[in-house]
Design goal:
- This protein is of the alpha/beta class and about 375 residues long.
- The protein is about 30% helix and about 15% strand.
- Strands 3, 4, 5, 6, 7, 8, 9, 10 and 11 form a nine-stranded mixed beta sheet that branches. The chain has a two-stranded antiparallel sheet with strand order 1-2. It has a two-stranded antiparallel ribbon with strand order 12-13.
- The N and C termini lie far apart (about 55 Å).
Length: about 375
Amino acid sequence: MKKSIFKITAFSIIAVLVVALSVTAFALTAPGGNVTTTGDSVSYAKTNNDNPYIVYNTTGLLRSAHRAGGVLDPENTMQAIKTCIKNEEYEVDVLEFDLHLTKDNELILLHDENFDRTTNSVEVWGREGVLPRDKDLAEIKELNFGYWFPYERGSVQVEDKRIYKDLSKLPDGKDAKDLRVVTLEEVFKEVGAKKTSDLAPGESAPKIKYNFIIEIKDKGSVGKYAAAQLCELMKEYNLFDKVVVGTFNGDISDYFDYLNANVYNGKINRSAGILEVLKIFLSYLMNRDLGTVKYNVLQIPYMNLFPFLGSKSFIDYAHKYGIACQFWTINEASQMETLIKNGADCIMSDNPKLLYEVADRVKYGNMVQPAEPQPQQ
């Protein structure tokens, strides 16, 4: 929660500053055409027909489980992943999660920069603030990623509700292995993906039902290594068309663009960084042409006090340039309804069950009304 508030606050503060400064000095790039790769940049088309993530008026809203559904299960765990793909109460289209690199260069699911908030790392290792880069995967496998659920370290808690605190006394049907750290490769395998090298002669790659939103959390050289490893795994598992990558670190966005142009021939789908979001919003406010960009998805916040990025006119503006609009982190039904009716392509929620229920009755442009009760005979 604190991390989400920080990200939204960062968006707000930077937006105010940049708007004030940019009224008198604002330069935009020239408009462009279809997807091209030139040098170390990739320019995306200005038509939504070329973007498979613009779905608001075709197949309809993509329902995304934020951190794999952190309200219903311990976040970013295999238990949460399995709930999303195997439960019979609701459906999920997109699994969203965050990646960090371990000491032995494994990509693991983890949102925070350390393990303190969601695991028993302090109890196991005897100190706070241990980073993923401080430990090998085998050491991190010692931790219980459901230890504090449904709370987090330091919050007010009801002890009896911490049902995953002791992995030797789990509720029926729960597996302790599913509450250990998860690697990206384990997730890909769980949804049925196979490495190209593991396919039999003449065997086609399996069709994967789910899409992914994956954020690289590391920065600098570690973040670049993580980004390169993520792209290599997408290649090995034939999942470029199923993944949107993102980061809050500009140097990592630039590195994704370099890989896209020079290694992967435009196959990488990337979301906009903070400054890129501000640029498109300023273009919208000033009714200026956006020109070409190096991303094809916006992943942006929405809240009652920060509503303009979710307005229909802004979403329409992004769609005009072939840019999909995906929103985080939406846990209130009223906000879900507003965004769906305004043309959102994807909503990320910690509560995918609630999102499924809302999306089942609310469609783009109008609300589906329940059938009127029939008089009894």
